[in-house]
Every structure is written in structure tokens, then in C-alpha cells.
Amino acid sequence: MTADVTFARLHPGALVVFDHGVRTRNVPHPPSDGESFPPLTNDLERDPVIYMQRGGYRVTMPLDPQWITTATAFGDLSRGHVILTGLFQVKERLPRQVDPDPPRRGHIIASPLVLGIAERRDPDLAATVSPKTPLRPQRRDSED
To answer: Any idea which fold 7-26+44-131 has?
Structure first.
């Protein structure tokens, strides 16, 4: 079942489909043979992240580079801006006072579940994160 909600109403566990321009930060280059990525620190300012802003809210998706599978994907994600299609799950909402940027209305931390670059943008999917329309997270039907 799908329901129309905004970032303000997203709750932990919500699944959200998106097709949107996102920003990326701290995405490393692929390691040379025999090397590995530096360990993740759980610091959103230092670790690789994908993020988007909409309606005064920021959604940040920490990214583990070991799951980036091709050199092309590393190149796309290291540009700083890319249009991605994907699915994320809300992990937590940071309290407003913890948010480092006071003008923001809220900050959502999410797990990216599926990410890709579509050959063409799907207008129906793009509308789910348009600034003028609410998001459409996927909700699980409760079992009775």
C-alpha cells in the first residue's frame, strides 16, 4: 500500500522510492589491487555519503564504498552531483537541536537499499520527490 506523505511525516522504517538529483561527498577512488578502503568512522562529515534536500529537510544516506561495484559507479558518485533512482529506508530522525545547520527543519538518516542511474528519468517516479508533491513511501500492510 502506498500513502502520500512529506519528509516531515516520514518515520523510521519507512521505505521511499526516489528519482532525484543528489549530492555526494567523500566518495573515495577505487583501491588498487591488494588495497582496501579506509575503515568507516560513523562520522557523516568524514565518511562517504549521498544526500538530498527538499522542503527544508535533508536526507543523508551513509555509503559503504565496498558495495560500489564498478569504476563507472565510482566516477559517477565522486562527481559531487548525480541523478539517481533508488530506494532508501529511514533509519532515524535527528532531533532539531542536534542538527548542525539551524535553518533546516529536520535531518533524516536513511539506508540506501538500491541505487542506480536510469537511462531516462521516469516522470511518475520523479514526481514522488518533486518539490510540489509529497513523497510516496512504501508501507507494509499490517498482518492481522
So the answer is: OB fold (Dihydrolipoamide Acetyltransferase, E2P) (2.40.50)
Per the CB < 8 A criterion, the answer to whether 20 and 83 are in contact is yes
Write out the chain's pLDDT in tens, 144 residues: 234 557 777 889 999 988 888 999 999 988 888 788 889 999 999 999 999 988 778 899 999 999 998 888 999 999 999 999 899 999 998 876 555 555 667 889 999 999 998 766 666 655 555 444 445 555 555 554
* pTM attached to this predicted model: 0.75
Q: In angstroms, rounded to a whole number, what is the distance separating the alpha carbons of residues 97 and 106? A: 9
- Residue-wise DSSP of 37-89: PPPP-S-TTTS-EEEEEETTEEEEEE--GGG---HHHHHHHHTSEEEEEEEEE
Rg of the chain in Å (alpha carbons): 16
